[in-house]
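User: I'm new to structure prediction. If I give you an amino acid sequence, what do you actually give back? Let's try with this one:
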Amino acid sequence: MTQTSRLIEGLRELAPAYDVALCDIWGVIHNGHAVFPGAGEALIAYRRAGGTVILVSNAPRPSESVVPQLDRLGLGRDAWDAIVTSGDVTRSHIAAAVGKKVFHLGPERDKPLFAGYPISFASEEDCALVVCTGLFDDTWETPEHYGTMLAGFKARNVPMVCANPDLVVERGGVMIYCAGAIAQAYEKIGGDVVTCGKPFRPIYDAAFHIASSIRKHAIDPVRVLAIGDSVRTDLMGAASFGCGALFIASGIHALEAGHDSDRLDGAMLAQFLAEQGAVPDAAMARLVW
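Assistant: Good question. You get back a string of structure tokens that encode the predicted 3D arrangement of the chain. For your 289 residues, that looks like this:
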């Protein structure tokens, strides 16, 4: 590890230094199929010790629609105080798009993102704006399947709003592509993309606002700990906002970061973080107390 990051065994080692935890959901708390052992208990213990937990997710849906999923997976509501999603941030762009012809690139399950707005949906050939929430079928499709579609958007200079900056997530042990991978492919061919969620400032502003309301005072970033498994979104977002960072090695970077069957290779982890230019305050295998 570097001089400013250390390998820890539990969140309890960091808890006294932070008033607020901004905790990622997918990859840290669950894998899409089940809550990881100890994750919920760690957040509950942190809250009992006086901390405030804001779940900060790049889910391309409004925060209220994430709650039923967490309930189904078995995460107790006493594990968190509030939820902020990239979908919440995206809705401000959708509000500004009223009156435009919108193409929704993503699965039907993400339709709640548009609820309450009189959006005129259009075909890919006739739209004036693309809102990307993911792949139509992420069980088998890849960004390469969208090459022709994206080329068509670029030919007409259609802008895209990306509702989930994640490139991939783990679902039950399988990596699947997210909206960020589509947006990245569009940017590579010169497409205009507005990206919502981590690591960009608006989602952190929203999380800080909620945390300040809960704690009834302004929140100092140095008293905030961002917990996540992605270098690109969680760690870089925390660094740019001046927060502390706890890296969870068992998520999307598990192979590179030296995590295997709940064993963590400290040397591999240190090398991986150095190669990424990431300097989290601490790292651990899984989120536990």
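You can read the tokens as a compact description of the fold. Here is one thing that stands out. The two ends are 21 Å apart (CA to CA).
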